[in-house]
């Protein structure tokens, strides 16, 4: 019963996070399912901090906006201009029909994919507006940019690794499981770990690719070793890459540490 309640709490937390993410991304008319952060990072062909110059409807395709932008910083890939926002992604019956509202001078972190030679994003990609004039979001903005800047050092390894496993779906807040801790290194926005499995899907070892600090890394490695694992889809190296990201507290939620 206790385990069931923990899973229910985890799912509720994910749902709450998704609602807030939709709100912050100006996609107020829908609630989007969100993969873990590392999955979204791997699937994106272009991730950058951009400033919107101009937005206009695409005369060739309905429900698609063409966006011209300037790039402040690129974290992954190469941006082409313009960017296309596929605004209508569903029929609204399941809350999937929504829009990403952008205007000139908006700054945001954009996640986009290269599809048929076009740079495409949608309201349900992990796009995030940067509210530089609102001190309530300063820590969150800095944390997101710092996370992406640090993560970009491992682009090649992330691209070549297996990163999805159903056993990670409920890892939405690890602080309660790991106990109290202190992030002594302000540059440690996440911990990146490689898990090597044997042929019978038991863990051979857990390594540290990019550390938080010794205390947190030790706790996370022990937690991963003790974790009950389902069969994961792995590459030829039988290795899974796992990342836990630190999210600072905001006026709307407490701080948390998760794969999301």
Structure description:
- With 260 residues, the chain is of the alpha+beta class.
- It folds into 2 domains: 2-130, OB fold (Dihydrolipoamide Acetyltransferase, E2P); 157-258.
- The chain is 26% helix and 28% strand.
- The chain has 6 helices and 10 strands, in the order H-H-E-E-E-E-E-E-H-H-H-E-E-H-E-E.
- It has helices at 2-24, 37-43, 138-151, 155-160, 175-178, 214-226; strands spanning 46-57, 64-76, 83-86, 107-115, 118-121, 128-129, 190-197, 203-210, 239-247, 256-258.
- The strands form 2 sheets. Strands 1-2-3-5-4 form a 5-stranded mixed β-barrel. Strands 8-7-9-10 form a 4-stranded antiparallel β-sheet, with helices on both faces.
- It is globular, with a radius of gyration of 19 Å.
- 28% of the residues are buried.
How are the SSEs placed, and which strands pair?
Elements: H1 2-24, H2 37-43, E1 46-57, E2 64-76, E3 83-86, E4 107-115, E5 118-121, E6 128-129, H3 138-151, H4 155-160, H5 175-178, E7 190-197, E8 203-210, H6 214-226, E9 239-247, E10 256-258
Parallel strand pairs: 3-5
Antiparallel strand pairs: 1-2, 1-4, 2-3, 4-5, 4-6, 7-8, 7-9, 9-10
Amino- and carboxy-terminal Cα gap:
25 Å
The CATH architecture of the largest domain can be given as Beta Barrel
**Level-1 CATH class name of the largest domain:** Mainly Beta
User: How would you write the strand order of the largest sheet?
Assistant: 1-2-3-5-4
Residue-averaged pLDDT: 81
Taken together, the total number of domains comes to 2
Report the portion of residues in β strands.
Answer: 25-35%
Q: Approximately how much helix is present in the residues?
A: 25-40%
- For this structure, the CATH topology of the largest domain is OB fold (Dihydrolipoamide Acetyltransferase, E2P)
Work out the oligomeric state of the chains in this entry: single chain
What's the helix count? 6
Number-wise, the strands total 10
Low-confidence stretches: 1-28
How does the major sheet shape up? Answer: 5 strands, mixed, barrel
Radius of gyration: 19 Å
